[in-house]
Structure formats: structure tokens, C-alpha cells
Amino acid sequence: MPDAAMLTVAGLNAWYGESHILHGVDFEVRAGEVVTLLGRNGAGKTTTMKSIMGLVGRRAGSIRYNGAEITSLRPDQIGRRGIALCPEERGIFASLDVTENLMLPPKIADGGLDLPTIYTLFPNLKERAKSQGTKLSGGEQQMLAIARILRTGAKLLLLDEPTEGLAPVIVQQIGKMIREIKQRGFTVLLVEQNFHFAATVADRHYVMEHGKVIDMIPNSEISGSMDKLHDYLGV
Amino acid sequence: MFMIFGYPSALLFGQLLLGLINGAFYALLSLGLAIIFGMLNIVNFAHGALFMLGAFVAWGLLEFLGVPYWWSLLLAPVIVGAFGIILEKIFIARLYKLDHLYGLLLTFGLALIIEGLARNQFGSSGMPFAIPSQLQGATDLGFMYMPNYRGWVVLASASMCLMVWLIIEKTSLGANLRAATENPALVQSFGINVPRMITLTYAAGVALAAFAGVLAAPIYSVNPGMGSSFIITVFAVVVIGGMGSIAGSIVTGFGLGVIEGLTKVFYPQGSSTVIFVVMVIVLLTRPAGLFGRGGH
User: Fold this and answer.
1) Distance CA B138, CA B146 (A)
2) Which pTM value belongs to this model?
3) pLDDT for position B124
């Protein structure tokens, strides 16, 4: 079933304490796709990612992964099913060196990249194996944060603003790397502010506003939708 | 006998050894506190009571079941660790999202209950616990006689501390633990059962206290107050070393034991306060402690 949805989010609501952040989010990601969530700051993109991962306190609605409801599972159970998060703040551990950071997430299934392949994709990580994780440059930390979830056999990768605050040359490298892992069969849900970057890697784009998905734009139509996008994103 | 700085060498070395023995207990207890604080963000005021419980379990195993000291060294930490799992599951797990004060009050209350029950059952005077036959007697080191059991306590504590340090700093299990201390939510999203890890960390910290309790049983009499007499000093050690620092708690534990011992020789009146004087100086100059990484 090539067109079957790998991840289906329907009517997703989420709260932080008393604040109601997501108001019925609907979208789907099919196996092998790269899909972005676009939107302004505060539209609920990161909260959507965290809700999928089970990291938001109160959720309602439905999140189905490979046909199974995962809304009520704990984060570790969701991780074991094959979803992995690369958080916005990257989450590199200061008390671990680069190798320890890389090897930290346990293998949950076959089909992850092996170490030699990872070191070919990210040569810097090998050179700096014994450095403290947070002593790496911003770009290297981002590479490390992505590399460590490629190892585990997770099939759906949630990448939260991987290009944020990075130099253009590093952003290009990350774009190349996302196309590469797509070719290797990974499915990616990407949060982005920069839709020029998103257009170079993604198959489809969902636009979020005020905790809802308000539009879906296939990448093939993105050049014809520029006015609309500028309007949505206020750029 | 010869003299050092005008003091008889036997007195000096004798106090040095006593200091090392106290330091051995400070190190084991503050190590457990550091591990628990790092992972649970709870200042475990029940630590002294659980140390005492370890000694009582060893005493009970010997008295009622004839289980020898050596087996108790293994069994008492397991039993008290299991008790720790129950405490964490029933009480402590409810406090992680609340202010530190609640954890402090809860564990302080637990300490009072455990000690009160022990006092109610066994009285305050304490029961003797014989030194195991293999470790009776003393060895002539040339410059002093060292009671074998005391030498064993220093050795056992140092080895246990080293082993715990190696596990935390050099193994993948330790890497999980360090990572979960920094960012539990992310580590859990990788598929690691962090709530279970937290429970087992509490059990391990508590088991270290029980291990120290068994080591202490033949030196001090087994009595309900043996934990509270230690724990105040141990908290000073933890503050000096830096909350949550593993290596810091070990080094500071032994170091302050020795400083306390030597103060007994050079300025006996100051021996009961010297650790607190050091604490004041450290807090004034390095508020995060000697090995602390700064505030959260």
C-alpha cells in the first residue's frame, strides 16, 4: 500500500497547563515522504511534534502510527514504535562526549544506519568523537542530533527546525542530508520557518496558524502559491 | 615511637585512620545522596534512617536467621533497596513536579517514622554486632597497629565508590543516567523507560546507604540513632562537594573525614565544628560547591 498514511493526526488538541495550544490539528504523512509544517512563531508546530511524541501533558484527539492509535502511550513506548524526535534546542547532552551522545538512543529495530555509514555522512563526528557534546559548533551539534536518531531503526523522524540559527553553507548541507536520508527510505516530518529551504527538500507542506492546519500545498505547486504563502507566514 | 610536629606519631596516625573511617562513611552516604539528587531532584533526608535500617537488617539476619556478615553485605542493600522501590513508587514519585521543599519534608517525615519505629521496637541503647572472625585482630604496620576491620571498612568503601564512579562515568548505563539527569523527556522519547530508571536510581542510592550501614554495624553499636548522628555531617559534605556531583561527593567525603581526624590532634575543641567551618568558607567562595557545575 504505497499511498497508505504512516502517520495520521486527526482533531488533535493539546494544552500546556491552562493554555490551550492546539485546536484540532489534522494532517497525514505517507511512508517515504518529507512533509513540512510551516507557520509563524506560536502557531503550534513544535507542540504538534511534542504531542506526537507524547511529551505534552494533556492531549485529546487521535494520532495513528502505522494504523495503531498511539495517543495514550508513554514517550518511551512511542519511541519504541519507531518515531524519533530531534528537538528544536537539539538536546545534545553536556555530560556526554560525542560518541556517547551518538550511541545513547537504544536500537529499537533493524534498518538503522550503521556507524561507518553515519561517519561517511557526518565526518566531523568521527574527528570529534571524544569532545564534550556541547563543545561542538551549532552545525555539528545539529548533525549529531540527527545522526543519533538515524542509528536506531526509527522510521519516522521528527526534525524540529534543524536549520535554525545556522550559516547558509551548513543549511545547504542539512538539506542535502535530508534528501539523502529520504532516499534511504526514512520518512521525515519537518518543522520550518524558512519555506525557501523547505521547498528544496519536501514533498508537501502543511501551513499552521493558531493551533490548526489551515492549508496543504504540494511542493510542485509551491512556486504558484508564493503570494498565499507570504500572506500566511507574514514574510 | 617518634614525633611529628611535636605530636606522638601513634596519636597522629590513629586519628588519621579514624578520620579515614568516618570519611569512608561520609563518602558512601554522600555518594548515594548525590546520585538520588541528580536524578530525582530530591534531597533524601531519609538517607540516615535507611543507613540505620541497613545495619538493623544485617543484625536481624544474623540474630534470627544466622546469616553471616558477608552475606548481609550483599543482602541488606538488596532488601533496603527493595524497600526504597516501595517508598519511591508510593510516596516520592508524586513529588517530582512540586517544589523541592515537599521532597525534603516527605523524606524527613519518613526518616522520623523509620527511626521512631526502630526505637519503639529495639529501644535506644543499641545492640552489639560482632566483627566477623576473619577480620578480628590488628596488623602491625610498623608505625602503628591497625585494627583489621577498620582497614577493611576503608578498603570496601573506597572500592565501592570507585565502582559506582566507573559505572556512572564509563559505561553506557551510566551515560543513560547522566543524559536522563540532564533531559529526562528527550531520553524517554528515545525509547528508554525513564520512570523505571528513576525508581531504580533511588533504590541504588538507598542500597549504598544500607551497604554503609552494614559496614558500620560492627564499629558503632546497631542503634536507631546511628543514622541521624551521621547525616547532618553528611549533608555538610554534600554541600561542600557540590550537590549532585559524583566524583565530588567521594573526594569530599574522604577528604573531610581526614580533616576532621587531624583537627582532633591539632585542635581537639574544633573537631566537631571544623566541617561546618569548611562549609561556610566554601559557600562564601564557591556557592555551587567545590565540584558543582553551578546552579540549575
Assistant:
1) 5
2) 0.88
3) 85
For B2: left if phi > 0, alpha if psi spans -120 to 50, otherwise beta; the answer is beta
Q: Would the ipTM clear 0.85, i.e. be above it?
A: yes
B79 part of contact set with chain A, CB < 8 Å: no
Rg (CA), chain B: 19
Q: Do B189 and A80 touch (CB under 8 A)?
A: no
CB pairs under 8 A between A and B: 64
Q: Where are the domains of chain A?
A: 5-233
Q: In which band, very low, low, confident or very high, does the pLDDT at B244 lie, cut at 50, 70 and 90?
A: confident
Asked if A109 reaches chain B (Cβ–Cβ under 8 Å), the answer is no
Q: Looking at the complex, does the CB of residue B187 fall below 8 Å from at least one CB of chain A? A: yes
Instruction: Kindly state the helix (H) or strand (E) to which residue A129 belongs, with its residue range.
Output: none
- Residue among B182, B186, B193 whose CB faces A87 most closely: B186
| Domain A5-233 = CATH 3.40.50.970 | no
Interface contact flag, A104 B188, Cβ < 8 Å: no
Question: Which residue is listed with cell 504538534?
Answer: A48
d(CA B63, CA B57): 10
Q: Is the pLDDT of residue B55 over 80?
A: yes
